[in-house]
Amino acid sequence: MLEISGLSAAYGQLTAIRDISLTVESGGILAVIGANGAGKSTLLKTIAGQLKATTGSIRFDGADVTALSTHERARRGIVLVPEGRRLFGSLTVHENLQIALSAKRSGVWSLESVYELFPLVAERRRRRAGDLSGGEQQATAIARALIANPAVLLLDEVSLGLAPAIVGQLYDRLPLILEQGTAILLVEQDVAQARRVSDEVHCLLQGRTSLAGKDLDLADISRAYFGAEATA
Amino acid sequence: MSIVNAVIQGILLGGLYALFAAGLSLMFGVMRLVNLAHGAFAVLAAYGALLIVRTGALNPIAALLIIVPAMAVLGFVVQRFILQRTLGTSPLPALLVTFGLSIIIENTLLLTVTADQQRLNLGSFDTAAIALPGGIRIGAFPLAVFVFALVVLALLSLVLSRTQYGRLVRAVSDDPGTVQLNGADPKLIYGFAAAIAFGLVAVAGVASGVQTSFSPSSGSLFLIFAFEAVIIGGLGSLWGTMLGAVVLGIAQTVGAAIAPAQQILIGHLVFLVFLAFLPGGITRQKALR
Q1: pTM of the model
Q2: In which element (H, E) is residue B159 found?
Q3: Tell me, what CATH number does A74's domain have?
Q4: ipTM of this complex prediction, to 2 decimal places
Q5: What sign does the dihedral B17-B23-B29-B33 (CA atoms) show?
Q6: Looking at the domain assignment, is residue B282 inside a domain?
């Protein structure tokens, strides 16, 4: 459903990802793993349209979306939960979710069903988003993205800066999201966490694909994650 | 009693200034754009109304039915095709471009409609007044403008707090990039905000044309009053802007009661006092409400 081939992107002169190809099946899940600076967030930004691709193409539902703007991609169902959550701090939690209604996509996800999935978010709905804790913010950010009824949900480093227990709770929600037919492409530094939700992993090293496949051996992943010389 | 009278007249004058300032405040709040051509567009609207009135078909109030939509469309177009290109991390391009626009508008008007002072005439409504005890007379037109300003600001604030467009305006003011991630186009949100701002400034320009006279170069004074109202009230707050406009109006009319020739100067001095001692304005809030 989401097919990326030969994708490269750069910040100015500095190429951040090079020749990445991957596919996310309809309703499927794929975890992109890699160390800090491997290009994981850049990859998601490029897929979401926040960064222009220098080469390669992004095909979605059979159509080429490489040239579309970010909001047009969101309206087609490619929705990113950005690094650092990026909630609208001066709006309430409820208002943050309502913003995503502007994607004008119908589907299983509504304010009610999202609140059901994240009871904590429902509890905080009248609070200003800027006043939430990190875990509450992350849950709200995922909830907001779901309101747009994504065909594929792009999750950028859900675990970043959160306590392991909170991260566990958030990851527990992912199978329930998949169950509703929403595909997930997530990036994660924590290999164990990524493997817990996805059999298939795609490992990036310095902006390039170093390993990709299903049910890989942990030793192979470690080599691909840290580079050839390192031992895990 | 003359002071009481001056205060009342000042409050009413504040209504007019609030109409000038609301558009400026809105555009700054939404897209962090300081529109230096704001006053020039008000003058343009006043001349548009004058043109319509001179055909003999409509009075200035009825002319608003044409001028306001026309200015709103102009606002949308100017935003989408000119101002949008100036938005970025630096405020300088927008300042230069809107300053340039104001010069273009002023000089085009000078060439086409001459530098003569003009007025918009409402006939008997112009001078109609309500007599209050104590010899205070409230002009019917200034009162109408004040009430209109209150109603418009209340409506605008309702739109901002309750509607999806209002939520988008506040969200885009926080973080335009993330608004895009949620499927909305910030450019369109900016365009509609500019349309609202230009519609408001059209009403302000015409109302001012009825209350006092105007010429192609009146824009800069309108702009300064609008700025002062926004700063006194506090950047980004609509009700703060209304409050700031009233403070400025009172400063000017009370000033005129003390030193008739120095009305404008005293208004500026009060503004400077606020800038020196209360630089965040009366409301001191950053978010748009």
Answers
A1: 0.90
A2: helix B140-162
A3: 3.40.50.300
A4: 0.90
A5: negative
A6: no
